[in-house]
Amino acid sequence: MMILLINLLAFMFGATIGSFFALVVERLPQGLDVVFTPSHCDHCQTKLQYYDLIPIIGYFNQGGNCRFCHNWISPQSCFIEIIGGLSSCWILNQYNTYHLLGASLFLLLFYAAIFDLAYHYVDQLVLTLMFSLTIILQNRALFANLLPALVVAIVLWLLSSLTHGLGLADIELIVILVLAFGLQITLWLTLFACLFVILKYYRHHYLPNIEIAFIPFFYMAYFLIPWLPLRF
Ligand SMILES: [Zn+2]
After folding, report:
1. Ligand 1 centre from 41 Cα, in Å?
2. Where is the signal peptide (predicted)?
């Protein structure tokens, strides 16, 4: 019963963070204020009531339509809130002990995934933050991971300059993950992220000549970590 309650709290916490991230991603590139502008309907601009702002519940409570103008509300925020809630529960059950680096990188990757999905690029600030956190918090294996990270960086950078098939931000992310978690986990994550991308576009029989948001697939792969046959 206690575990259920803790998980419920973790879910609410994650959903709230997801709700906030969705708002930041929507408003920040437009130069809109995130904290002080009240949430409103995109169609009729009516200010939302406090009970409409509760993550997930607010969306279903309105039946997916605006209470005032009855226009359809995009379920995107609700979807991000659910993913956020599930992620939070996942972190809680994955790390029995308080794992600051794992949890904070997971959080930033979540934000980067939403941003990448919306705009097809990654905020450089997020990558810088992930890199700084890794340098500060990863003290045990940082030096052991330095050489693999360097080799991965060189190989991927050369590959990218030859084929233009890989974004610079994706390379930076992979190198940061090698520094933080080592080559083994990162290789698994990259493989699964690639597999997810291929599966998504498989029915087209070719990869479309567009920028593919890679980070969301990376985020999906993150959830597989507990089932990977890792050896330390
Ligand atoms: Zn409305």
Report:
1. 5
2. none
Please answer whether residues 105 and 134 qualify as being in contact, where contact means their C-beta atoms are separated by less than 8 angstroms: yes
Instruction: Quote the ligand 1 centre to 62 CA distance (angstroms).
Output: 11
Average per-residue pLDDT for the chain: 85
* pLDDT tens per residue, range 7-28: 899 899 999 999 988 888 888 7
Distance 25 CA to ligand 1 centre (A): 21
**Contact indicator for 227, 121 with CB cutoff of 8 Å:** no
Instruction: Express each pLDDT in 145-160 by its tens digit.
Output: 999 999 999 999 999 8
Q: Which neighbouring-strand residues pair with 24?
A: none
CB count in 10 Å sphere of residue 4: 8
Domain boundaries, the chain: 1-94, 104-232
